[in-house]
Every structure is written in structure tokens, then in C-alpha cells.
Amino acid sequence: MTSYPREELTREVAFVAYHLHWSLDSILDLDHQTRREFIHEISEINRIINTRRQEADSPVLGRRSESN
Question: What is this structure's pTM?
């Protein structure tokens, strides 16, 4: 069995915990592939949300935000 780099595991756990508010034990119970799938999906959701926000704030693509 290959050891998983501690720094990478820490980043993955922090990422999932931050976004899903899961406990450390719940995240560590996931196998590596499943954890990576969650990370991918969370990243995709964030990408979509950020794109929509940028489009909504763009004077060309959408409305300007109230603060502009």
C-alpha cells in the first residue's frame, strides 16, 4: 500500500470540511477516490457560482452590482 502525502491529505480534508462542514472522521472515512470526487464536484459548483456572479456584475453581460 502506498502512503498518501500528508500535506495533500490535509488540503483535501480542509477543502471538504470548509465547504460541507463535515467532521474530520467523516471525511477520513472516505476512500481517496470518493474524496477526490467530492473535491471535483465542490470545485465545479464554485466555478459555476463564480461565473454567474461575474456575469451578473458585468455591465456588458448582466446588471451592475448595487455598489458600482
Answer: 0.75
Would you state the pLDDT for residue 58? 77
Cell numbers linked to 28: 477520513
Q: φ and ψ at 39, to 5 degrees?
A: -60, -45
Instruction: Identify the domain containing residue 27 by its residue range.
Output: 8-57
Task: Give me the amino acid identity at 10.
Answer: T
Q: What DSSP string describes 15-55?
A: HHHHHH---HHHHHTS-HHHHHHHHHHHHHHHHHHHHHHHH
Number of domains in the chain: 1
